[in-house]
Design goal:
- The chain has 167 residues and is of the alpha+beta class.
- It has a single domain, classed as Bacterial Protein-export protein SecB (Roll).
- The protein is built from 4 helices and 4 strands; from the N terminus they run H-E-H-E-E-E-H-H.
- It has helices spanning 2-14, 35-39, 103-132, 145-166; strands at 19-34, 47-59, 65-78, 84-99.
- It has a 4-stranded antiparallel sheet with strand order 1-4-3-2.
- Helix 3 (103-132) packs across helix 4.
- It starts with a helix and ends with a helix.
Length: 167
């Protein structure tokens, strides 16, 4: 009878949904360089934008608190000449209180779910900074954080495989 009670308790605990709240979010670092204006380049400009995104999760000292920093590097070049038009670099952090996520699932949770929560704010800042910097506002498309996570895992697995082959 005690065994069934233990199983029911474990089953009930497994069914508790994850709980997440965004405690705060902020710009840690922001840089916008309008190269076009600095060089005084004129004429026909056809911007081509390259966006690189990286995530940095870390534990905080308080229990169940985590910080996730989204690092963006956005470079715009003129399509015909490859001359740089602008560079935007931003580190945007969110501090999260997370409960009921098993430890083995915490890493993907931090790199997929947490960025999804702060991305709309990042998008808005990029929009405003590019507009205020003298360019048409850059409307970033939604980022597939699951796909980004999977690519990063595949890249690390390939690097590990190459390191073992070299050894």
């Amino acid at each position: 009878m005690a065994e069934n009670g233990a199983e029911a308790g474990a089953e009930a605990q497994a069914q508790v949904p994850p709980k997440m709240s965004v405690m705060t979010q902020f710009i840690r670092d922001l840089s916008f360089e309008n190269i076009l204006a600095q060089k005084g380049v004129g004429g026909d400009v056809q911007p081509e934008v390259d966006i690189n995104v990286a995530m940095e999760p870390r534990n905080r000292t308080a229990e169940n608190q985590y910080e996730v920093t989204m690092k963006l590097q956005i470079t715009s070049k003129n399509k015909g000449t490859d001359d740089k038009l602008f560079i935007l670099e931003m580190d945007y952090a969110g501090i999260f209180h997370i409960e009921n996520v098993p430890q083995e699932q915490m890493h993907p949770y931090l790199l997929i779910e947490c960025p999804r929560m702060i991305f709309p704010f990042v998008r808005r800042i990029v929009h405003d900074v590019t507009r205020d910097g003298g360019f048409p506002p850059l409307n970033m498309e939604t980022i597939d954080f699951l796909g980004l996570y999977r690519r990063e895992l595949a890249k690390r697995a390939e690097e590990m495989k190459n390191q073992k082959a070299d050894a």
